[in-house]
Structures are given as structure tokens and as C-alpha cells.
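Cont'd.
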Amino acid sequence: MRLTTKGRYAVTAMLDIALHRNRGPISVMDIAERQGISAAYLEQLLAKLKKGGLLVSVRGPGGGYQLDRALAEITVSSIITAVGDGVDATRCHGTGDCQDGDRCLTHELWSDLSGEIDGFLSGISLADLVGRKEVQHVASRQDQRLIHARHL
Amino acid sequence: MRLTTKGRYAVTAMLDIALHRNRGPISVMDIAERQGISAAYLEQLLAKLKKGGLLVSVRGPGGGYQLDRALAEITVSSIITAVGDGVDATRCHGTGDCQDGDRCLTHELWSDLSGEIDGFLSGISLADLVGRKEVQHVASRQDQRLIHARHL
DNA sequence: GCTATACCCGACCAAATCGGTCTACTTTCC
DNA sequence: GGAAAGTAGACCGATTTGGTCGGGTATAGC
């Protein structure tokens, strides 16, 4: 099971774009500042998300990234997968040849777990997250802080 | 979320010991051969499991490791935790200060996910695993192979 | 057509982690 | 006493992570 900052950053960035979707394209810099993520690093992740068909980019001044699908059609699972942080918990990546061509003692356990996790994350879309009170609260705080910081 | 070979090996080893519990103490070498795990590495994991109160060891010839609790009282979750592969998916380890003392946008999501995974793994004990047909099948295959190998 | 903005892309890097080895014990049974 | 077995910890090579840097290229607006 690999769920590292890569996956977390990706979901965070997607959610940030979702929350500000009515402002037109969102620049990497904006997301990076609001979410406290290195801009150069974030670029790599957004590139993968674009390659995965979750985002489109607009070049030039005023450009940035936009969602390529409806909020409800983008699941957390798909974001994590797109960026390479697999949800798979087995050692053999599901093939079943964990021990010299045969299944290992615990193959089914990890396989079941993978299903469980994927089921959970597939059931949560950006639309769900955007609708959460707690998320909206954090988002408005971040917006305020960014405006404040840019006034200096 | 950290679920690496460490956690997988630990669960595999514990299950191996559980399956052969009627044979007295199980040596590291036996487990290593049956499960295809490096004995030297396995030692480290078993030491942690012992420190965590899941195993007891018997030194000297004929010694090895034994479970320190009833099968039903040892959950997969507790095994993974004992070797250090935390089930926690948040960046802040549950404290909630993911971004300059406040919660990040996705704190709740990862927190929920952690709960989900932990709930799943806490619900599975060694007794459950030992009772599974597939597990028994793989175990008997491993036993046969070991006997065969030692005849050479 | 310049220029500032912003995405694009690939090389590179330091630190951490992982899976594992090796050595040198100590304890216990025969 | 010697062999079997656990104990402890230093060490190691490979990979991954998280991130930087530097140079592109496209494009909007003047």
C-alpha cells in the first residue's frame, strides 16, 4: 500500500481547483501558496493529473489548470491512481504469484484490504468534499490568509 | 499510510506460527524457509512482535517463538502496529496541525480513511485467518514443500 | 512583435526508507 | 563443553521521496 504525500498533495490540489473553479484557470502558484506545497513539485503532480485526463491546462498569462470533468465524476481514488500512488496492498500487484508462482499465505487478506480501501476512496468524489462544511471552513481561512499575505 | 513488506511479513510470520502452534515453539529458520523470507530480517520483526507482547520466545535448542495470546485476541491491526507499519493515513498523525498549526484541506478525509482501514484490520484476527480454507490449503502446500526440500 | 505570464519537461539531488547482511554475543539443552 | 537457538546492533546497497533547477514553449495583451 502506497499512500504518500504525492497522493495527498494531488487530492489537495484537485480540491483547491474545485473550490475555486468559478474563478477561471487556477495557476500553480496560487495553489502552492494556499496549500503550502512547493510549486515546482506541484507542477509535476499536476502534469500527471493532466495526463490522466483529470485536468486541462491553459497556457499564457491568466492561464492555469481547470477540471476536465464534473465534480461528481472525479473520485479520490482516481486522483491517487493518476499520480501513481497505487491503492494496491498486495506484494504481487494482484497477480497472485507472491511466492514462487503460487499465492502466499496472506494473499487474500491484502487483496481484500485493497478492495476495501478502493471501495472507500471510489465512493468519495470532489463534489462530496466540496460540500463538506469543514472543508469550506478551511478553504475560506486559506483564502483570507492568501489575500492578507499578498497585501504585504 | 505505510503498509510495506514489514507489515506483510509480520502478519505472515504470525500466521505461520499460529498454524503450527501445536508443534511447540517455532524457530525463525522454519518460518523463514516456509514463507520465503530472509531469516536475518525476520528476526528483527519477531523481536518487535515480542516487545509488543504478541509473542514469547524460548531460547536454546528446540526453542523458537510462540503466541502469547489466544488466536482470537490477536488482530491483524495489532500485528502491523507492533512492527511500526502504522495504519495512519494523515500527515500530521492525527494531531490536526497539518498546515501551520491548523488543519489542512484534506485532514478529515485521511482521518476517515485511517479509521476505515483500522476498522477493517481490527476486525480480522488470527483465528479468522487460520479458519480460512484458502489459508489452510496454502499452508499444507508449504509444509509439503519444506519436508521435500529437507529430504535432499 | 515584445514581453510578461504561465505551463512544459527533463535532469539532478539530498535525505529517508527498505530489505537485507554480517558479526558478535548470550542463553539453554544435551 | 558444544551445538542450537535467540539477542543486539552496526552496516549496506538500492530505491523512493520530496524537491530544485534550468531551460524550454505557448499565448495574451500592449
